[in-house]
């Protein structure tokens, strides 16, 4: 098992970042997400928006990794649940893969909150737990996947900035 974590600060208010995060896919920074389906969306008695989505991704696994896993499959699915609390100013998003779970499990948690000292900025904390099961070179694969998650996180931050910039440009 390998744990990856990160923190990023956006130079935008929480409301702006959350609107962009909810519209994150598709984006040109991370074309591996090829589909997003909303399975369920509801508002609870406390006014929090709950969303369950299914993401279709093209992992583009290197041939060595596909050989180790013993699969040629590259289309994978991820289950995502998010809760947006507009009163408490917090969005929590949890996702986990539902494809290849016999070999690899990736559980990710993202939390968006206003910056404690500057309401014009937003803090994103991310954590991913990567577990490779029953495969030789499992530690190597966990490390490789942690590096990929780190790279994809940066693409995700850039995508949110791109969405915000394009939304502002469209309003101008």
UniProtKB/TrEMBL annotation:
A GO term, aspect molecular function: phosphatidic acid transfer activity
Domain of life: Eukaryota
One Gene Ontology cellular component: mitochondrial intermembrane space
Residue ranges constituting the PRELI/MSF1 domain according to the UniProt record: 1-172
InterPro entries reported for this sequence: PRELI/MSF1_dom, Slowmo/Ups
A family per Pfam: PRELI
Protein name: PRELI domain containing 3A
Organism: Monodon monoceros (Narwhal)
Lineage: Eukaryota, Metazoa, Chordata, Craniata, Vertebrata
């Amino acid at each position: 098992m390998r744990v990856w974590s990160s923190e990023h600060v956006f130079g935008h208010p929480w409301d702006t970042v959350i609107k962009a995060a909810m519209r994150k896919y598709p984006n040109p920074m991370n074309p591996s997400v090829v589909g997003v389906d909303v399975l369920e969306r509801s508002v609870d008695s406390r006014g929090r928006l709950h969303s369950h989505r299914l993401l279709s991704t093209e992992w583009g696994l290197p041939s060595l990794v596909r050989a180790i896993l013993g699969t040629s499959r590259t289309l994978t699915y991820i289950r995502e649940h998010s809760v947006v609390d507009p009163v408490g100013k917090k969005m929590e998003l949890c996702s986990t893969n539902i494809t290849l779970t016999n070999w690899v499990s990736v559980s990710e948690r993202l939390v968006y909150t206003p910056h404690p000292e500057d309401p014009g900025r937003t803090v994103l904390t991310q954590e991913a737990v990567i577990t490779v099961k029953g495969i030789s070179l499992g530690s190597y694969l966990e490390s490789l996947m942690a590096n990929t998650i780190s790279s994809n996180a940066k693409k995700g931050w850039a995508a949110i900035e791109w969405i915000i910039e394009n939304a502002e440009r469209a309003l101008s």
